Amino acid sequence: MAVSATKLEGALNQLLSAHKIKDYCPNGLQIEGKPQIQKVITGVTACQELIDIAIAKQADAILVHHGYFWKGEPEPLKGMKRARIAALLQHDINLFAYHLPLDVHPELGNNAQLAKLLGVTLRRGLEPWDPMSVAQVGKFDEPISPQQLTQRLQQALQRDPLWIDGNKETIRSVAICTGGGQSYIDLAASQGVDAFISGEISERTVYTAREMNIHYFSAGHHATERYGVQALGEWLAQQYALDVEYVEIDNPV
User: For the whole model, what pTM was predicted?
Assistant: First the structure.
């Protein structure tokens, strides 16, 4: 069963409340391809390798978390950027991308999916003034040690997280912001949160964790953002009977 690209974009925009969220890129249909869609490839980032796989599998659309046209990037279609977009246009493949809307969705989002994997119940946004807060705060049912949280991250993400000791024996409350959310650690610490989980880490993050007594876990930008797009792909398959396939492109960062 095929569905029109226009209908699919409308459904995804509504589901993810894309129009309500200010972002660094356009969310939705970024590259227009064939009008009818049956085969969809999903992935974290619309890199050339993912595009090549989609072409080989004769996909009608690609759905990703990291698409194109970021604010501040060079505008000319040259080099790597030209090659990617040319391949999509040549093979008439639609490109759908949802950045922050996919991070914050309460059920299918990256934060929600990572929390589910770790056994965290999300309760509120870290930014109390923003109803669409990118970072979320939750709790474990029972306090755990930082060593136990490290093990859970290893098992869930299949990679070793970097743990910065926050000088607390146990963890009950935890803030989560997948991807490049390390700058939220100061806000989490000011609210008395026991631990913060994100994808990336900066040099200053180490000192904030140590001096403000909050454990910090850097678990990988790619690794922490694999699960939202997979959940969204499963939703598409169920709602529209589409052939949806997630493709993992290895990225150690």
Answer: 0.97
